[in-house]
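Sample pair:
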Amino acid sequence: MVSYYDKNKELVKQRTKDWQRDNPDKVKEYNSDPINIEKKKEYVKNNPNKRKQTLDNYYAKNKELCNERNRLNYQKNRESYLLKAKLKLENQRNRLYDILGGKKCVKCGYVGLALNFEHINNDGAQDRKIIGNSKKQLYYYLNHPEEAKQKLQVYCANCNWEKELTLRSSQS
């Protein structure tokens, strides 16, 4: 037996939207009730795929609106977004330093801001072709720590430049 809701799904949805539009105070009261907030959190926690599907459907139907909202939100909170991105990148770099043995030049022992990740076998250009730019390489090596230990080391800017000049002079 098919239920009324299943037979009239679109009609019920439209009536619900109309009621919500006509009763914003009651909707606000319902949404601010701590019991209902907990129920929503529990539902989202227990139904992640359904929640994702709902959001994906909404985005597909309202792509222009979502993009505009995101653009305006970014403009309004640009400094916050940039700070979060900077902190995230710094955190990831620190995790890779930890994988490679710490924030210290392996050649001279320098500890400071002028540290770089250096390719042991001078195959950085090859890595850029295969993996991509430095940010993509950072993500890659965080997900492949054993490979990072084999291919990378921590050098200060001076030792890195010294190695580069030595390689250039030996090639010519």
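Strands lie at 115-119, 152-156.
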